[in-house]
């Protein structure tokens, strides 16, 4: 697939489970992006907290909530589910517990436009908890990115980036 424009649709795909404490900050950081042609899709994997209610408050800003059903058994299935919902030329797999720099999407799209032979961009950012503190071990996060990168190769989209 050849990227046609710096204004191509970018699908921001956010899988989540019990992310009530962090999802609003994450969505706010995505809505504040300098790159504006985006769709935001949040796939909730049967959360038992108020994640769905928090995400639904963003409906009027174009955030789409996809609710998982009993067929979604864990993180990997939820990641697959949300990625398949994306309609954009670019698919972004973002996390429900991260904050994003205002120009991250613009930078990633520009990089992929300038490097047509590259199909995946990874960024290394530690996740946050409800207080803004780093949650997981950095190496664990990198290993997860690599696992999902290989899974993304199965998708029909040729340009994927993870943050």
Structural features, described:
The mean pLDDT is 80. 32% of the residues lie in helices and 18% in strands. With 163 residues, it is α/β, with parallel strands linked by helices. The chain starts with 9 loop residues before the first strand and ends with a strand. It contains five helices and six strands; from the N terminus they run βαβαβαβαβαβ. The chain has one domain: Spore Coat Polysaccharide Biosynthesis Protein SpsA, Chain A (Alpha-Beta Complex), CATH 3.90.550.10. A six-stranded parallel β-sheet has the order 3-2-1-4-6-5, with helices on both faces. The protein has helices spanning 23-31, 51-56, 75-85, 104-114, 138-152; strands at residues 10-16, 38-44, 63-67, 90-93, 120-122, 160-162.
Characterize the biggest β-sheet: 6 strands, parallel
Strand order of the largest sheet: 3-2-1-4-6-5
Low-confidence stretches: none
Give the overall shape: globular
- In N-to-C order, the SSE pattern is EHEHEHEHEHE
Secondary-structure class? alpha/beta
* Count of helical regions: 5
CATH superfamily: Spore Coat Polysaccharide Biosynthesis Protein SpsA, Chain A
Helix content class: 25-40%
What's the pLDDT, averaged over the residues?
Answer: 80
| Topology-level CATH name | Spore Coat Polysaccharide Biosynthesis Protein SpsA, Chain A
Share of β-strand residues: 15-25%
Taken together, the total number of domains comes to 1
**Name of the top-level CATH class:** Alpha Beta
The number of E-state strands comes to 6
C-alpha Rg (nearest Å):
15 Å
Proper CATH architecture: Alpha-Beta Complex
């Amino acid at each position: 697939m050849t990227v046609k424009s710096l204004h191509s649709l970018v699908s921001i795909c956010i899988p989540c489970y019990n992310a009530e404490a962090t999802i609003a900050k994450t969505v706010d950081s995505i809505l504040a992006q300098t790159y504006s042609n985006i769709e935001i899709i949040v796939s909730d994997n049967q959360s038992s907290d108020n994640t769905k209610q928090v995400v639904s408050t963003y409906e009027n800003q174009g955030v789409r909530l996809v609710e998982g059903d009993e067929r979604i058994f864990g993180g990997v299935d939820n990641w697959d589910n949300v990625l398949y919902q994306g309609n954009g030329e670019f698919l972004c797999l973002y996390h429900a517990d991260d904050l994003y720099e205002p120009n991250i999407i613009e930078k990633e799209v520009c990089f992929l436009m300038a490097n047509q032979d590259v199909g995946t961009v990874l960024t290394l950012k530690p996740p946050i908890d409800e207080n803004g503190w780093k949650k997981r071990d950095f190496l664990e996060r990198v290993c997860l990115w690599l696992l999902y990168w290989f899974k993304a190769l199965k998708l029909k989209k040729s340009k994927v980036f993870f943050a």
